[in-house]
Design brief:
The chain is an alpha/beta fold and 726 residues long. The protein is built from 29 helices and 17 strands. Strands 7-6-8-9-11-10-15 form a seven-stranded mixed β-sheet, sandwiched between helices. The protein has a five-stranded parallel β-sheet with strand order 1-2-3-5-4, sandwiched between helices. Helix 5 runs parallel beside helix 14 and helix 16 runs parallel beside helix 23 (514-525). The protein is globular. Residues 1-39 and 279-298 have low confidence and may be disordered.
């Protein structure tokens, strides 16, 4: 009896996908006949999309998709893909990941009742098609610009952005929390929380913590596992694990795909039987086993309590739509994981051919794929780090490099090409990266752990518990420290000075320029009794002409090697002129030193009675207290400048001044200049420095105010800057 009921239910599921679409899918409406017949462009070059977008033009919200046929959904996907390409070509941004999920985005908004059914995009750098379909098409020219659309999902921007992101591996936890909250609120309406997570993000441990908890809570969530073979940026960097995607999970899912053909909706209709009540499951266990064709008798995801479906072609709407409909209409609350295979950069040949699949691109020419960037006149800080590390490793076989899925962004890819067996890409697993480095240090290896400042936040306990307390000489390289430009608040390296500076026993330095970066690399290499951290910003270094002008280096070429600096000792780069009535000291940490020197010149040029000293602290820990004391004793005003949040370098200086009694007599005016206590949104780095008040004119104005002199801020003149990809 039960068996016959279940067979009837299975038959209904077999039929439901095609019947559920009804007449809307039988043929194109007359008004859309041209759109359905529109031919897709053949691969070029020159590359070009459709001349018009008749279907996309009718979509203001996802509700406008509900009456489309499958043929129309395919045509809409074609139009949406090229709309995304054309938009990003004008602003720069994360292109490849967005192109890979066009069909998935269309299918999700067609099948689910968004925003009532929340869709949470992990990392959310792939949300450009989603933004276009959810009422933000007209604002795409402002993408990642000051006052414009965020490059990531942002709750304040749209009700369709259910959860904000920028960092990875958060989606399943957020989806589970939202599903449980819906149940706790006692709402009758059945709702599905959907998490979309990629094969890079799913290497992070938080994904498994969430999946482990999801089955236990038995809440109605769906995880879309988007498998595109791009775990690291770029995937294929030579490393100790070879050139394959980082980690065993990628190999595991690759074996799943190789051993099982793509499933269509009829296979899914059979296998979804297991989501029905237990008595029906038992009666049809043999049917289910046959239909699923499992090779191993189960998957990792099933062991975690998820009902696994897949692999499915993530670009095949004929199957993807009805499969999602079956999942939506399932009974029970067992969490489901749908494993789809997609191609990052899909549909744009230059992206498909690139090693990083055009993950992050500047403005580019659509017809050719040529990136519209001027050749760099000076090296980037990232490349200076990579070259310095290679030099150290060439002379010492114990030097190794560690990255958390960002070999390209950190420069570790360059190191990996030279020393693949000493290069370790651990995937998006910063916690593991730090403790792995600690283990290497225990055995006498010299690990350089290169992680963006904003991503090291994810491994704070490991930094303290596994490294600092044990005084292990792990060398932390914090790229993208400070403001990063167009990626905005999720990627700014705003907090590392504060969150590392409060840890006992760690040495923390920040170079003012590329020569100092080389020197500091040599310095921390030689430190073997404590952990060290070296922070530097994104972007290009100053160049020899600027170095010689501002800091009087007198260099004809860059030094071939860095030289070790004394630990905890700063330097004076510009002395105040003599015979003046007022003296100002500017003490900078990091690359705001150049702006400080320019401010000093401007002050002395406009005020003959003022002398300005500029010093480079070099180290936040240990702090050069002798230098601070001298500056305090010899000047009327002391200003500290840093590209970090409240609680950082300036606060350490003020703490020392207060405890030392330098402020007791009221003869010294001290002011810290730091990032404001707010999140600075996307924009060019120049715009962000202005908003933060850390450009030359703000440093100059701060000094003049403290001297009681008139201040004329004027207006900033920001040159056009290339969009930045953090």
């Amino acid at each position: 009896y039960h068996s016959s009921i279940s067979m009837s239910l299975l038959l209904g599921l077999y039929s439901a996908p095609s019947l559920g679409l009804g007449g809307a899918r039988t043929a194109c409406a007359t008004s859309r006949a041209h759109a359905c017949m529109q031919q897709q462009q053949q691969p070029g070059p020159p590359y070009a999309g459709p001349r018009s977008t008749p279907l996309l033009d009718t979509v203001s919200t996802p509700n406008d998709l509900k009456g489309f046929s499958l043929a129309e959904l395919k045509q809409l996907s074609h139009e949406l893909r090229w709309e995304t390409i054309n938009a990003v070509s004008k602003t720069g941004g994360h292109l490849g990941s967005s192109l890979g999920v066009v069909e998935l985005t269309v299918a999700l908004h067609y099948v689910f009742n968004t925003p009532a059914d929340p869709v949470i995009w992990d990392v959310s750098h792939q949300v450009y098609p989603h933004k276009i379909l959810t009422g933000r098409r007209e604002r795409m020219p402002t993408l990642r610009q000051a006052g414009g659309l965020s490059g990531f999902a942002k709750r304040s921007e749209s009700e369709y952005d259910a959860f904000g992101a920028g960092h990875s591996t958060t989606s399943i936890s957020a989806a589970l929390g939202m599903a449980v909250a819906h149940e706790l609120r006692g709402l009758d309406q059945e709702r599905t929380s959907v998490a979309v997570i990629g094969d890079g993000a799913i290497t992070g441990g938080m994904a498994y913590e969430a999946m482990n908890n999801a089955a236990y809570l038995n809440s109605r969530i769906v995880v879309i596992y988007n498998d595109n073979g791009q775990v690291s940026l770029p995937t294929g960097t030579p490393s100790a694990g070879g050139t394959v995607p980082a980690g065993s999970l990628s190999a595991y899912t690759s074996r799943l795909i190789a051993s099982k053909p793509f499933q269509d909706f009829r296979d899914i209709a059979k296998s979804i039987n297991r989501l029905f009540p237990s008595e029906i499951q038992q009666a049809n266990a043999k049917i289910d086993e046959y239909a699923r064709g499992m090779v191993s008798g189960g998957t990792l995801f099933e062991e975690l309590g998820f009902y696994y479906i897949g692999p499915v072609d993530g670009h095949d709407l004929d199957n993807l739509v009805p499969i999602l409909e079956n999942i939506r209409d399932r009974g029970g609350k067992q969490p489901v994981l749908l494993h789809i295979k997609t191609d990052k950069g899909k549909g744009y040949p230059p992206a498909e051919a690139a090693s990083d699949k055009y993950h992050g691109v500047p403005k580019f020419e659509v017809a050719t794929g040529k990136k519209l960037t001027a050749p760099a006149k000076t090296p980037s800080y990232t490349s200076v780090f990579a070259d310095s590390l290679i030099d150290l490793a060439a002379a010492d076989r114990s030097v190794v490099a560690i990255t958390a899925a960002m070999p390209g962004g950190t420069g570790v890819d360059k190191f990996g090409k030279r020393f693949p067996k000493r290069t370790f890409d651990v995937g998006i697993a910063e916690q593991h990266a730090v403790t792995f480095a600690a283990g290497l240090a225990v055995e006498g290896i010299k690990p350089f752990c290169a992680i963006y400042s904003t991503f090291l936040q994810r491994a704070y306990d490991q930094l303290i518990h596994d490294v600092a307390i044990q005084k292990l000489p792990v060398r932390f390289i914090l790229d993208r420290a400070g403001l990063v430009g167009n990626d905005g608040p999720t990627h700014h390296g705003s907090f590392d000075l504060a969150y590392i500076g409060c840890i006992p026993g760690i040495a923390l330095c920040a170079p003012s320029d590329e020569v100092e970066l080389r020197n500091m690399m040599r310095t921390i290499y030689e430190v073997d009794d404590k952990p060290t951290a070296l922070r530097y910003p994104r972007g290009s270094a100053l160049g020899l002409d600027v170095l010689n002008d501002l800091f009087e280096y007198g260099l004809d070429e860059y030094p071939a090697r860095g030289k070790a600096l004394p630990l905890g000792k700063g330097r004076v780069v510009r002395g105040a002129r003599e015979d003046v009535s007022s003296r100002v000291a500017i003490l900078s940490l990091g690359t705001r030193l150049a702006e400080s020197v320019l401010a000093a010149r401007a002050i002395e040029g406009a005020h003959a009675d003022v002398g300005v000293t500029v010093a480079d602290a070099r180290w936040m820990k240990p702090l050069d207290t002798a230098l601070v004391a001298r500056l305090a004793e010899e000047h009327d005003v002391l200003i500290t400048v840093e590209e970090g949040s409240i609680g950082g370098f300036g606060d350490h200086v003020l703490h020392y001044l207060s405890l030392g009694g330098f402020l007791d007599e009221g003869t010294l005016k001290a002011r810290p200049m730091v990032l404001p206590d707010k999140y600075i949104e996307a924009g060019s780095m120049g715009e962000q420095y202005e908003e933060a008040g850390l450009s030359q004119r703000f440093i100059e104005a701060t000094a003049l105010r403290l001297l009681g002199k008139p201040v004329s801020m004027g207006s900033s003149s920001l040159a056009d800057e290339e969009p930045t990809i953090a």
